[in-house]
Request: fold
Amino acid sequence: MATNYFKNYPNQEGFFEQYGGSFIPPNLQKEMEKITDAYFSISKSHNFISELRSIRKHYQGRPTPVYFCNRLSTKYGGRIYLKREDLNHTGAHKLNHCMGEALLAKYLGKKKLIAETGAGQHGVALATAAAYFGLECEIHMGEVDIIKEHPNVVKMQILGAKVVPVSHGLKTLKEAVDSAFGAYLQDPENSIYCIGSVVGPHPFPMMVRDFQRVVGIEAKEQFSEMTGELPDNVVACVGGGSNAMGIFSAFLEDEECKLFGVEPAGRSFEVGEHAATMSYGKPGIIHGFKCYLLQDEKGEPSPVYSVASGLDYPGVGPEHSMLKDMKRVSYVTATDDETIDAFYELSRLEGVIPALESAHAVAYALKLATENPRQSILVNLSGRGDKDIDFVIEKYGLPK
Ligand SMILES: *Cc1c(COP(=O)(O)O)cnc(C)c1O
Reply:
């Protein structure tokens, strides 16, 4: 792995080797270039960094702890540790980049934050950031998702955001993205588009990664302090890939740390039954950037499914796509059933109810622990499971 990694990737045009870039209409390209310039000049400034640090500490409650799972490790072997992003304000890692994006918006004098949301998690995090900074917030959401994700819709409204229903096409995430970009282009002077993961056109994959790096920086220091060494294995779930990039970024140059990105194998390997982009996808273009993509013969994104709605995306961040080709990160999978088992194991052995997204990472960590009883495993627990409990009980019931 090159030293100077973060200076080399992405390059000037936003490419991570062949992935990333920005494949968008010229009017949108102009706005992206303005955001890129602003990001480089503002986000490296002393004032910006001190303000973000203060927010992380006093508002978000960072650093989040690293926690050793005693009972889980005793049962499965290995030494399993969790980076507790479930204890970050709002209960997941997403607020890390939303506060960064909103702070940038404030420095740019913007009045409104615009985004799309699928399951509603990104919408809630962004609505939280908007409330903190006193900015308007407009969240575009497919009508199908609005019905499915009712509690998150209510949360966004309580936080003062406007939820815009999207009623064309399949009425889900893809249409919501188009609608949000459309709204942004109507008033790019006063508004800013805030993406929810390390995806989309340059500069978003870089910006979101940089705002999530705090997770890895903290975790590396905490783990070393607790154990006197680096973890043998670092595991994170991958939807778009923001929580995974956050923790992996601190260990990329430590060749002795094995890195695992866990994607959802869902119900089966049939098209439409999983979202294991790295296992079954090939390079293509979605939402203005190039990445591994689950696609049909025409290059259209395939339907995807996961028990964790935060992971059902047919693409993946461009940086992950590059790290797969470089073989620096191993991309593996966990099925729905393995995920539900891990959800209950962590709840009952440690008193921590994980988000179903994060439970994918836990599921793979349990496999690693069984196979490598002498090794340490650091899992990024990206979020808490309160949002999932009704669904799990209704669909799966209590474990036998
Ligand atoms: C959204 C979400 C994810 C997936 O997004 P990434 O960008 O892949 O991190 C994972 N875990 C939780 C708790 C989420 O809310």
